[in-house]
Amino acid sequence: MARQNGVTIEDILKMDCMKNCKLIAGYSGIKNVVSRVNIMADPDILNWVSEGEFLLTTAHALTADVEFQKKFILSCSQKKLSGLGIKIYPYLEKLDDEVIELAENLSFPIIELYYLTPFSEIMTPIFKEIFNKQTILLQRLEKVHEDMMNIMLKGGSIEDIINVVYENVKNPVILKLNYPEKTIFKIDMLEENIREKIKKNFDEFYLKSKEKISEKRFYETVEKISGKNITRMVMPIVVKEMVYGHIFSWAVITPLGGFDLSVLEIAATTMAVEILKLLSLRESENVHKIEFVEDLCSTDEKRLARAISNLSIYNFKEDDFYCYLIIKIRRNYKKFDFNFISDSVYLLNLLEDILHKNNINGIVVGKKDQIDILLCFKKDENFRKKINFLKDEVLDIFNKKIFIEYMVGFGRCYKGVENIKASFKEAQKAIKAIDILKERNVVFYENLGIYKLLCSDEIADELKDFYKTTIEALEDYDRKKSTEFVKTLKAYFECNGNLKKMSEVLYTHYNTILYRLQRIKQITGLDVEKENDRISLHLALKIKDIIK
Predict the structure, then answer these.
(1) Residues 65-74: contacts with CB within 8 Å, 24+ apart?
(2) DSSP secondary structure letters along 153-169
(3) pLDDT above 90 covers what percent of the chain?
(4) Higher pLDDT, 545 or 314
C-alpha cells in the first residue's frame, strides 16, 4: 500500500480535467493514494516508477498484444502504482475483457482518458491538488507535533498523547507499554462485536508474532476481521535500541495513509522521550539504592552508620526484621529475547509492583544480570507467609511473562540492621548452591542442609584438600584411561547402593558394576561397604561439584 501523502483515485475522478474520463476497471482500488504523476514514454518505464505514482499512457504504447497488456498491468500492480490512465481511442476500440478482468482481480484502477485532452492538462491540476493536499497535511502534522510538545511541557500523561493520536487518525487505537506497564484502549466508538475482534487481533500480535515483538520496525498488514480485509499499523516505541511497547491502529472507520503513519511516528517518538526521562530517573534512584544496600552490608562502621541515618527514607527501622534475596538472570534465554528487559527495567518494575500491591515493605535494586531485594518486616508481621507468597509471585513472573532462565536465593530473616549482611551472604550461598544442585532454581538458605557447610568460604581450602585425598585420583584415572568410575560412584548413591538398579541405569552388566566398585576401592582406598568410607565418598562427590 502506498503510504505517501497525496490524493486518491476517487478524488482525481472528481476533478474538472477528468470530466470526460471514466473508470473502466479496478473499482475497489479507488482509495489508492496518488503521490506523483508520470508519463509512459518508453516501454521500460516500470524500471523508474515509484510506489504511489499514477501513470499516463496510450494504447499505442501498450500495443495490441493482449498478453503484453496483461503482463504490463500485473507489473504495475506489483510496483504498487496507484493506477493507470490510458487513451484507448483512436488506437483501439476498447481494452480486451481479459485485461479488464485482471485489473478487477488486482483491484488496480484503470481510467480511460478522453483522447482530446492533453496529458499536460491532466498532470498539472493533479500535481497542484497533490501539492495543496500535502501542504494541508504538513500543517496538520505540525499541529499534531505542537499538541504533543505542549503535553510534554505541561507535564501531561501518556494517556493525553494517545488521545491526540485517536483524534487525528479517527480509527481505533491501542497502546501497549512494557515500561511503565500499561495498556490503553481507544475503541469505544466501535460496536461491541467489532471491539472484541479488535482486541483479539491485538492479542494475537503478541501470541503469534513473538519474534516481531522486539524488532525495531514498523509493521503494516492486512488483517481479516469480521470477514473484511482491514489494514493494521503497528508502530514500535524504541528507546536506547530497545522496544518498550507498540501503538496499534486499524482502518475500521477510515483508510490509514501517510498522514496516519506520521501521526503514529510522532506519538512513538514523543513517548520514547517520556520513557527516557523515566528511565533516567529510575537509573538515578537505582544508584542511590545500590549505595544504600551496599552500606548496610558493609563491615565498615562509617558506611553502616551512614546507611542507618537514611533508614527512614525507605520506612526502615533499626530493630525491624530483614530478609535479603538475590535474583540471578542467566543470559542464555529459553524461549525468546524480550529485549526491553535487557537492562532489567521491566523486571524491576514488575517486582516493585508486587511489593506495592501486596503491602510488602522493601527495596528492589538492579545490577548487571542480577536483582537484589531487601525486605523489611515489623515484629508483628507474618514474614514467613509473606516471603513464601513473594516467592510464588516471582515464579509467576518468569513462567508467564518474561521466560528467561533465572535463579533465586533467599537468606534467612534477621532482627536488626546489623544482621542484614548475614542474610545477604546467605542469599549469595543459596545462589551458589543452585549451580550445584541444578535441579532447582529457587533455594532458601535455611533449607540447604549440608550445603550450608559446603558453600562456606571459610572452609574452602579444607574442602579442596578433602577432595584431593578422596576422589581426585579417581577423576585422573578416568581421564587417562577413559573409564567411568566417577559416573559409577554417582550412580551408586543415586540408586542407594542397589546394584541391580545401577546396572539398569548405567546399561552395564551386574558383574561389571561389581568390578568397578572393587577398582574404586583400589584407586581411592575407600570402600563403599564401610560406613565412614561411604560418607567420605558421597561428601567428596558433592564437594567436587562445588570446587569444579
Answers:
(1) 66/96, 66/98, 66/99, 69/95, 69/96, 69/99, 70/98, 70/99, 70/102, 72/46, 73/99, 73/102, 73/103, 73/106, 73/108, 73/110, 74/102, 74/106
(2) HTT--HHHHHHHHHHHH
(3) 64
(4) 314
Residue 41 grid coordinates: 514514454
pLDDT in tens, 386-399: 999 999 999 988 88
Residue 114 has what DSSP assignment?
Answer: P
Q: Which residues pair with 110 in a beta bridge?
A: 25, 84
The pTM (predicted TM-score) of the whole model is 0.62
79 grid coordinates:
510496483
Question: Do you find a cis peptide bond into 180, omega within 30 degrees of 0?
Answer: yes
CB 438 within 8 A of CB 542: no
Q: Rounded to an integer, what distance in angstroms lies between the CA atom of residue 184 and that of residue 541?
A: 55
Distances (CA, A) of 79 to 31, 50, 161: 17, 7, 36
Residues 6 or more apart whose CB falls under 8 angstroms from that of 472 comprise: none
Distance CA(58)–CA(529), nearest Å, equals 101
CA–CA gap between residue 126 and residue 11 (Å, rounded): 10
CB 329, CB 405: distance < 8 Å: yes
Adjacent-strand bridge partners of 414: 322
3-state secondary structure 410-438: ECCCEECHHHHHHHHHHHHHHHHHHHHHC
Q: Give the C-alpha separation, 167 to 236, whole Å.
A: 20
C-alpha span between 288 and 72 (Å, rounded): 67
- Nine-digit cell at 175? 497502546
Q: Supply the Cα-derived Rg of the chain in whole angstroms.
A: 36
Report the distance separating Cα 21 and Cα 113, nearest Å: 5
Q: What angle do CA 317, 367, 414 make, to 5 degrees?
A: 30
Long-range CB pairs of 14-20, under 8 A, 24+ apart, other chains included:
15/125, 15/126, 15/129, 16/125, 17/117, 17/121, 17/122, 17/125, 17/126, 18/111, 18/122, 20/114, 20/116, 20/117
What residues contact 31, with CB distance under 8 A and at least 6 apart? 8, 9, 10, 255
Confidence band of 414 (pLDDT split at 50, 70, 90): very high
Q: Would you give the DSSP letter of residue 366?
A: E
The pLDDT of residue 501 is 93
How open is the CA angle 391-395-398, to the nearest 5 degrees?
145
pLDDT band for position 457 (cuts 50, 70, 90): low
Considering only CA atoms, which of 397, 326, 414 is closest in space to residue 366?
326
pLDDT at 326 over 50: yes
Q: Annotate 303-349 with DSSP letters as a single string.
A: HHHHHHHTGGGGT--TTSEEEEEEEEEPSS-SS---GGGTTSHHHHH
Judged by DSSP in three states, 405 sits in coil
> Do 87 and 121 meet the contact criterion of CB atoms below 8 Å apart?
no
3-state secondary structure of 476: helix
Query: CA 404, 408, 409 angle in degrees (round to 5)?
Result: 160
Q: How far, in whole angstroms, is CA 108 from its chain's centroid?
A: 38
Smallest Cα–Cα separation from 367: which of 431, 447, 412, 436? Answer: 431
